[in-house]
């Protein structure tokens, strides 16, 4: 069901290898612009405002207060629950390539002084897919926030469930959603920031459960893969199908916020909910 | 227990057109049932059946994915692939069950949630996520049974429960073996190989902590003896429902949370 979505995601992954050449080709408007310009804008297409993918490290750097980030569960790595062939090797490759140990980084931080728990998914690590570690780290982040009366800001980016973990990956949807509910029932604020791409099992679990759902411009948000749907209905889908603006129009996103304003919007929203400056 | 079949052989049984569906089981397990319709928001999804009825005289809420027994029935129920309104109907009926202190019995039998334009427009992701989160804290017992196919998030949306039972030949998986082969190996024809490697059988589910109970099927599969398989399902429900109803609801909810919370393989 997700196969074609993965194809699209993968294709864009390959595109990102071009980042090391001096031009940037935008996956949305298909135009090229100088890479340096794209980088200066923190990976935003200067022509169509598509918000490209950031690494977890880059996202932390532009979002939270300097040196406020304190990582949780940094050493956690994955087992191989269904003994899937070559899964360990695949993980090792991804870790070496990205410099992170799994597809999500979680921690405590402050945003303009407001304390919070943050989670940042990184689509470079096995397409940001959710397996045991992503599920466990996100669940713990919400439990920690619930215990310490902290808000959660979650930047989502995922191709969906991690196929190599079979049914165990599906169960992470239940685990994370349960932890979100626990945090919510204690009155905690949860802000989702959907970034490129937020799809599959992540859309169908914690990503869609934010009290406030923000999306970056032109990012892909959906449950089913575009090609799968095209094969079902036997016609081409419009270009803007499943983009942030489409989901906003349909009522599943509260606001679309540009990257350069994100930190300030998050800070305001945290303060509006009474999370003012205090020690974490 | 009948002869051990491979995952692939069982998959053929699950796809057998004569495999019993919820409509076959209903009169053999429940009495006094009334079907309920609509999500009160958008429409009535025929891929999700909802009813109030009795199990051994006790009022219960029944929620099920509906497979058809022929092409016309399958067209009507969209081959058991629900739209968001189906999941929202399920949640409405679950909430109603909570209000009237009825246990909820969910029957899972779907290849997956429907992949289409309308489904995306009406927020398939949100609908599944909402069900998962809300069922986690639903203050009434929930028992789920996988009848045939338990495909993906579309199955899990009826699968957050106090105990999961699975029919002997049924499967539960993150994605159909065909889809799995197509994603990982770019070759959908390696479906059989995928089915053997994915760990999707009833025994796998128990070993991985996803299911608690396997419901035995008649020799050759459920379709060979509808009375017998219905009896087995009813026997299971008659035992588990009173047991869960007796429990303090806060203890039950804690156990439900833990059941899912502990699934995963990681190293620290
Ligand atoms: Zn562009």
Describe the fold and architecture:
The complex is a heterodimer of chains A (280) and B (268). Chain A is α/β, with parallel strands linked by helices. Chain A folds into two domains: 1-50, no CATH class; 53-272, Alpha-Beta Complex (2-enoyl-CoA Hydratase, Chain A, domain 1), CATH 3.90.226.10. Helix content of chain A is 39%, strand content 18%. Chain A contains ten helices and ten strands. Chain A has helices at 3-16, 35-40, 56-63, 87-98, 132-147, 166-185, 200-203, 226-233, 244-249, 259-272, and strands spanning 23-25, 32-34, 70-72, 77-78, 104-111, 114-121, 152-158, 190-198, 212-215, 255-256. Chain A is globular and about 50 Å long. The termini of chain A are far apart. Chain B has one domain (7-261): 2-enoyl-CoA Hydratase, Chain A, domain 1. Chain B contains twelve helices and nine strands. In chain B, strands 1, 2, 3, 4, 5, 6, 7 and 8 form an eight-stranded mixed beta sheet that branches. In chain B, a hairpin with a 2-residue loop joins strand 2 (48-55) and strand 3 (58-65). The model of chain B has no long low-confidence stretch (mean pLDDT 96). The chains are: A alpha/beta (280), B alpha/beta (268). Chains A and B meet through strand 4, helix 5, helix 6, helix 7 and helix 8 of A and helix 5, helix 6, helix 7, helix 8 and helix 12 of B. Strand 4 (77-78) of chain A pairs antiparallel with strand 9 of chain B. Bound molecules: zinc ion. Zinc ion (ZN) binds next to loops of chain A.
């Amino acid at each position: 069901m997700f196969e074609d979505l993965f194809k699209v995601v993968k294709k864009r992954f390959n595109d990102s290898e071009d980042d090391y050449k001096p031009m940037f080709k935008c996956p949305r408007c298909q135009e090229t612009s100088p890479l340096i310009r794209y980088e200066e804008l923190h990976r935003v297409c200067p022509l169509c405002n598509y918000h490209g993918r950031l690494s977890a490290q880059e996202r932390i750097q532009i979002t939270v207060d300097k040196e406020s980030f304190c990582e949780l569960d940094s050493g956690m790595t994955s087992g191989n629950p269904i003994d899937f062939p070559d899964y360990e090797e695949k993980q090792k490759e991804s870790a070496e390539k990205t410099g992170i140990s799994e597809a999500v980084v979680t921690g405590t931080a402050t945003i303009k002084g407001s304390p919070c728990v943050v989670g940042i998914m990184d689509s470079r690590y096995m397409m940001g897919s959710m397996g045991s570690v992503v599920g466990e780290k996100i669940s713990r982040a919400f439990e920690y926030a619930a215990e310490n009366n902290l808000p959660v800001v979650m930047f989502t980016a995922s191709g969906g469930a991690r196929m190599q973990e079979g049914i165990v990956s599906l169960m992470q949807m239940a685990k994370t959603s349960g932890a979100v509910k626990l945090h919510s029932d204690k009155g905690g604020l949860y802000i989702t920031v959907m970034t490129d791409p937020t799809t599959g099992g992540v859309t169908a679990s914690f990503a869609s459960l934010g009290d406030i759902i923000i999306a970056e411009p032109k990012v892909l948000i959906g449950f089913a893969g575009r090609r799968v749907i095209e094969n079902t209905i036997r016609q081409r889908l419009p270009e803007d199908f499943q983009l942030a603006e489409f989901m906003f129009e349909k009522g599943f996103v509260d606001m679309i916020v540009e990257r350069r304003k994100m930190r300030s919007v998050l800070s305001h929203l945290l303060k509006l909910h009474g999370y003012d400056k205090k020690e974490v | 227990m009948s002869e051990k079949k491979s995952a692939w052989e069982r998959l053929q049984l699950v796809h057998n057109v004569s495999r019993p569906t919820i409509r076959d089981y209903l009169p053999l397990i429940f009495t006094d049932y009334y079907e309920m319709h609509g999500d009160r928001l958008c429409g009535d999804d025929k891929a999700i059946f909802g009813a109030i009825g009795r199990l051994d005289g006790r009022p219960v809420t029944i929620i099920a994915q509906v497979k058809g027994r022929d092409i016309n029935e399958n067209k009507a129920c969209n081959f058991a692939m629900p739209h968001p309104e189906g999941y929202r109907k399920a949640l409405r009926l679950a909430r109603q069950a909570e209000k009237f202190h009825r246990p909820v019995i969910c029957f899972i039998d779907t290849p997956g949630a429907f992949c289409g334009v309308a489904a995306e427009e009406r927020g398939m992701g949100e609908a599944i996520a909402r069900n998962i989160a809300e069922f986690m804290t639903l203050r009434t017992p929930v028992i789920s049974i996988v009848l045939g196919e338990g495909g993906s998030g579309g199955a899990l949306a009826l699968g957050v429960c106090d105990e999961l039972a699975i029919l002997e030949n049924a499967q539960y998986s993150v994605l159909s073996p065909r889809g799995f082969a197509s994603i990982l190996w770019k070759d959908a024809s390696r479906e059989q190989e995928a089915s053997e490697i994915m760990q999707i059988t009833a025994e796998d589910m128990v070993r991985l902590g996803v299911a608690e109970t396997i419901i035995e099927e008649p020799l050759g599969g459920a379709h060979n003896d509808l009375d017998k398989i219905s009896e087995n399902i009813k026997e299971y429900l008659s035992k588990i429902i009173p047991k869960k109803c007796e429990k303090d609801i806060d203890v039950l909810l804690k156990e439900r949370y833990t059941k899912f919370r502990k699934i995963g393989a990681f190293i620290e």
